[in-house]
Amino acid sequence: MSQKRGRGRPPKRERYRKAAKLRQQGLSLSEVGAHLGISRQGVFSLLRFHGFTDVPRKKLLCQKCRTPVLVRYEHQPVWCVKCAITPESPFGIRVRALRIAKGLTQRELASQVGVWVGTLRTYELMGVSPSWEVVPRLTRILGLELLVTGPAPRIPAVQPGSMVVRCANCAATVYCGRPRTSMGQGAICLTCLKKKPDAPFGVRLKAFRIGKGLGQGELAKLSGVGLPTIHGYEKQVHPGQPRWTVLVKLVRVFGPDLVTVI
Questions:
Q1: Which of 12, 65, 186, 205 is most buried, by the most CB atoms less than 10 A from its CB?
Q2: Which of 73-77, 109-113, 252-256 shows the lowest per-residue confidence on average (mean pLDDT)?
């Protein structure tokens, strides 16, 4: 004798099919929950349990130009890439715009970068500067647009001279030109730098500076970064945590290779 189905909610599998169909039609979690008689959190748990990932995108308006931006799981504010990637844009706005443009959620990007999702939220929403170790990982995922800094200053040509600086590792010539102060000892060439992905930021900065034939004072004038700050990085007084505003000024001089050559 067949048993009659009792009253109440339909089985979970049937509810899942209905929830998935409604979500694909563009309904929010709350609207789906109202149709099924369960809470918003219940709909989310039901879809996640069955592996549903086809979340419909919605359109939000760019905060600056009011262009529609397609998003998932996002709320205001959002920016389009064109408005977000400018030399004066804060780090958090750049990351948020590029992440949304690539269709990544905060959790997905945080997983790929290797940071807590809460840490990524502080970057995007609170303007917290990232540690140096995080910037290259974000650049590899989001692209070189993250490092847009505007036109580079003109670096003076190296004048002929008798001073020779050699790489501390392979003895290759790093600098050959007129004698000058602050060229420093213990510099390495870019070839050796690529073999040291964990090298402190100061070691990297010194390799690029001497490779361009610049003294610390000259770099300070070209970049707008204070001489004590540059000296402190190279002496590893502050071992590897350049603020984003400082990093952007130095990238403007040396280009994205300062971050991406790893």
A1: 205
A2: 73-77
CATH architecture assignment, domain 163-260: Orthogonal Bundle (1.10)
Predicted TM-score of the model (pTM): 0.74
| DSSP one-letter string for 77-96 | -B--HHHH-STT--HHHHHH
Q: Residue 250's closest CA among 210, 227, 220, 212?
A: 220
- pLDDT band for position 26 (cuts 50, 70, 90): low
CATH no., domain 58-147: 1.10.260.40
pLDDT in tens, 99-113: 999 988 888 899 999
Say yes or no to pLDDT of 4 above 90. Answer: no
Alpha helices in the chain (DSSP H): 12-24, 29-36, 40-49, 81-84, 91-101, 106-113, 117-126, 134-142, 190-194, 201-211, 216-223, 227-234, 244-254, 257-260
Look up residue 62 and give its DSSP letter. B
The C-alpha angle with vertex 33 and arms to 30 and 36, in degrees rounded to 5, equals: 160
SS3 of residue 161 by DSSP:
coil
Q: What is the pLDDT of residue 95?
A: 94
What are the sequence ranges of the domains in the chain? 12-49, 58-147, 163-260
